[in-house]
Amino acid sequence: MVPAAAFAAAPRMHSGGTLGLRHDEVPAILQRGERVLSRREAREYDAPRRDRDPAPVVNISIQTRDAESFRQSRTQVAADISRAVAMGRRGM
User: Fold this and answer.
1) CA 54 to mean position of chain CA atoms
2) Dist. CA 72–CA 33, nearest whole Å
3) pLDDT band for position 27 (50/70/90)?
4) pLDDT tens digit string along 38-49?
5) Long-range contact set of residues 81-90: C-beta below 8 Å, sequence gap at least 24
6) Is the entire prediction scored with pTM above 0.85?
7) Which candidate in 2, 6, 19, 42 could, as Cys together with 37 as Cys, close a disulfide (CB 3.0–4.6 Å)?
8) CA 31 to CA 40: how far, in whole Å?
9) How do residues 49-72 score in pLDDT, each as one tens digit?
10) CA-CA-CA-CA torsion for 24, 28, 34, 37, nearest 10 degrees?
11) DSSP code for 28
12) Under a CB-based contact definition with an 8 Å cutoff, are residues 69 and 61 in contact?
């Protein structure tokens, strides 16, 4: 905490900097281990995750005795795949 009076005589830089800072720069005090992101890095960080990470490729192998047995179970197979995809989206 700093008393408000500490800023009473501080220079006002609203229209541009003159103390070695440009109008769009701000000073910062960081702790060891903290990092500052560039504007590009900040944009990428704020971008939705789907824009940063490509969609994963999922291969599914199904073994069946014959085509007819697969046809009979395809509704169940589709439901199982849908459930697995939903769990993957939730990170489970």
Assistant:
1) 13
2) 59
3) confident
4) 888 888 887 766
5) 85/58, 88/56, 88/58
6) no
7) 42
8) 22
9) 655 566 677 788 888 888 888 888
10) 0
11) -
12) no
Residue 57's CB is within 10 A of a number of other CB atoms, namely 5
Is 64 within 8 Å of 70 (Cβ atoms)?
Answer: yes
Spatial CB neighbours of 22, under 8 Å, sequence gap ≥ 6: 16
If 0-12 CB within 10 Å is exposed, 13-18 middle and 19+ buried, where does residue 17 land? Answer: middle
What is the rounded distance in angstroms from the CA atom of residue 24 to the CA atom of residue 16?
A: 8
Residues 6+ apart with CB under 8 A from 17: 23, 25
pLDDT of residue 29: 76
- The two structure tokens encoding residue 46: 């704020």
Structure tokens at 90: 């939730």
Q: Are 43 and 51 in contact (CB under 8 A)?
A: no
Sequence length of the chain is 92
